[in-house]
Amino acid sequence: MTRRSALLILEAVELLTSNRDLDRFRASSGDVVLIPTMGALHAGHESLVRKGVELARGRGICMVWVFVNPTQFNDPADYARYPKTLQADVDLCTRAGAAAVFAPSAPDIYPPNQQIPVPSLPEQATRPGLEDAHRPGHFAGVCQVVLRFFDLIRPRCAVFGEKDWQQLQVVRAMTKRDRPEIEIVGMPTVREPDGLAMSSRNRFLAPGDRQKALAISRALVGAGRVKTPAEAEAAMRSTLRDAGVETEYAVVRDAATLLAPATGALRALIAARLGAVRLIDNVLWPSI
Fold it and tell me: Which of these is catalytic: 42, 45, 134, 138?
């Protein structure tokens, strides 16, 4: 355990489960609002932390979890190159007002002598044919580690970004079923001034690909101007194709189930590749 200013930094499960400081936080401040992240934090994450601090004010503490989870990567090379910037992450969390950062190692979360269960996956993780189709095993890893977070920390609520829209719906469905006492809060996507959704992966874009990536947000904006989901999907594919962007999917789906045809609110979603970098984005459809 270390301290920087008023921030408590925990780097092992043993400290999390037995640490007197954390116990005092719970006793004196109440519930925990959890911000699960994989680190390499940026202004989008900072908005989540600030929301967590707001939700915790007067009734608890905001804790940020920084852990690059190996079980949700279907590509070992992608896991190996995922940026790890703990010092900068701690600085951001301090600036945003978090009370604690938990940055464990993989053996802490997945001890060699302990089987960490994978919960049964909700339909949002298996049926849509979006991230589930393009990243096999991804949501099994997400659900496994999120449930592990919840069991270790026992938060009152957890805050997730809307950029990973399918992930948000998967976590919401799993939590409602398995840990209904925990509230899941979604926060809007934070964008660069030129419209590109903030992502830890943006730093890997080559200069030319960085410009091409703007076609993703441009396609989503354009999709909001047409009248039907089919027209929106065709418009998105055309915009991406014209920009030379490799498209994995560009669809309009039910916002809650991720299925088509939709029965409620709609979401336009895109996944695309630029060189070795894979980016996702989404917006409410039609745009307000």
Answer: 45
Place of tokens 């992966």: 201
One-letter amino acid for residue 52 of the chain: G
Give the integer Cα–Cα distance in Å for 213 and 198.
11
DSSP 46: H
Buried b (16+ CB within 10 A) or exposed e, 140-162: bbbbbbbbbbbebbebbbbbbbb
Quick one: fold of 202-282? Answer: Pantoate--beta-alanine Ligase; Chain: A,domain 2 (3.30.1300)
| C-beta of residue 157 within 8 angstroms of C-beta of residue 61 | no
pLDDT above 90: residue 128: yes
45 carries an active-site annotation:
yes
H or E element that contains 34? strand 31-37
Residues 74 and 136: beta-carbon distance below 8 Å: yes
Any idea which fold 2-187 has? Rossmann fold (3.40.50)
Please tell me the distance from the alpha carbon of residue 148 to that of residue 152, in angstroms, as a whole number: 6
Sheet architecture: strand order including 277-285? 246-254, 266-274, 277-285
The domain limits of the chain are 2-187, 202-282
Q: What is the pLDDT of residues 61-118, one digit of tens each?
A: 999 999 999 999 988 989 999 999 999 999 999 999 999 999 999 999 999 999 999 9
pLDDT digits (tens, 9 = 90+) for 184-194: 999 999 999 99
Tell me if 2-187 shares its fold with 202-282. Answer: no
Label each residue of 201-244 as H, E or C: CHHHCCHHHHHHHHHHHHHHHHHCCCCCHHHHHHHHHHHHHHCC
134 and 249 in contact (C-beta within 8 Å)? yes
Sequence letter at residue 118: V
